[in-house]
Amino acid sequence: MRVLHTSDWHLGRVLYGRKRHDEFEAFLKWLLATLAAEQVDVLVVAGDVFDTSAPGNRAQELYYRFLCDVAATGCRYVVILAGNHDSPSFLQAPQALLRALDIHVVGAVSDDLADELLILRNAEGQAELLVCAVPYLRDRDIRLAEAGERTDAKDRKLQDGIREHYARIGELAEALKGEIGPVPVLATGHLFAAGGQTVDGDGVRELYVGSLAHVSASVFPPVFDYVALGHLHVPQKVAGCEHIRYSGSPLPMGFAEAAQQKQVCLVDMMMDGAHCQLVIRSLPVPVFRSLESVRGDMDTVLARLQALRLQNKPLWLEVICDTDGLASDVRQALESAVEGTQLDILRVRHNRLVQAVLQQGEVDESLDDLTEQQVFDRCLDAHEIEGERRDDLLALYHQVVQDMGDQVREASEEALS
């Protein structure tokens, strides 16, 4: 069996307010071409298909159009698991219809653990692959909460719950193999493995509130021939194990991921008697939109922007600059530097302003510890803005916040309707 392992598509994700539908569409077209060219039998999506639990219409359209087009590639099965970003009920709503197309969706843990066991059979009814299709295990699925519980006790219960879940489904897989004969066993997961590599700003959330609950490779029983993981965006092996892998996200979720070579994992699973042999290849994913982070003092930043102008290529930019200038003056200078080009500045971070804001508070304080209002007040203090001008800026700030809140509410109501 030839399996293509992917995860963390995050369809519908925006980057600093910019929609990325064109990138997602280009990736899905590339994925369809890859399924056909590599003669893939099984496509696995190990969670976080969508970026939110209520994806917009365009994200849904891309998803369902892709599923309709998979059959034409020769790929015979699709296995989709819910991640922590996904709504289990939303993913599972068309479950029965999709199953008729050999598209298997597992959104959440059910009362019957056997629901997570999939036997993929050929046209003659012979078993070809056994899949332990484990979705993201939510807190309520794997532990009983207790009042006044300490964080370390909660972490231990979460890890024990994850370990027990995989042990139980591993036992079921062993028993089922005894009935159907020797077949490869593939398991999935959407979790944070201990020692897993992340990057700042990648949008990877902690899976359990107030807890780390990072699991070790030992939670996966030896019956699993390959473990297809999702959640971490950096492609990597777990604890050096060839057969336990994160495919990573196919698109950079933020500027911190821009320099990564994104990939998917192509896995050939071949039975040699009672043992499964693996051949694993990483297939690089093309760059569908270039991102770059430009850092330094104002002269360094402007020099880099001038060099990028000469390349005359479309590029989304993040600028992180060290300067004593007013934020508005910095932004104006940067916009002038890219005017008339295909360079688009999505974000400007004024490093010294951030440092000035934080210096007014506690030593260990970060921006995450402050409300938006506190940050704005400290920005005004940092620039020594007082009197009538301060009142005017505060009034404008409050109007902007109110307008943004109205837009978010309207978008949420539209998505729910």
From TrEMBL:
CDD domains: MPP_Mre11_N
Domain Calcineurin-like phosphoesterase: 1-102
Family to which this protein belongs: Belongs to the SbcD family.
SUPFAM superfamilies attached to this UniProt entry: Metallo-dependent phosphatases (SSF56300)
Domain of life: Bacteria
Entry protein name: Nuclease SbcCD subunit D
Source taxonomy: Bacteria, Pseudomonadati, Pseudomonadota, Gammaproteobacteria, Oceanospirillales
Function, as annotated: SbcCD cleaves DNA hairpin structures. These structures can inhibit DNA replication and are intermediates in certain DNA recombination reactions. The complex acts as a 3'->5' double strand exonuclease that can open hairpins. It also has a 5' single-strand endonuclease activity.
Record-annotated Nuclease SbcCD subunit D C-terminal domain positions: 287-383
Protein encoded by which gene: sbcD
InterPro entries in the cross-refs: Calcineurin-like_PHP (IPR004843), DNA_Repair-Maintenance_Comp (IPR050535), Metallo-depent_PP-like (IPR029052), Mre11_N (IPR041796), SbcD (IPR004593), SbcD_C (IPR026843)
Pfam families assigned to the protein according to its UniProt record, in alphabetical order: Metallophos, SbcD_C
GO molecular function, one term: 3'-5' exonuclease activity
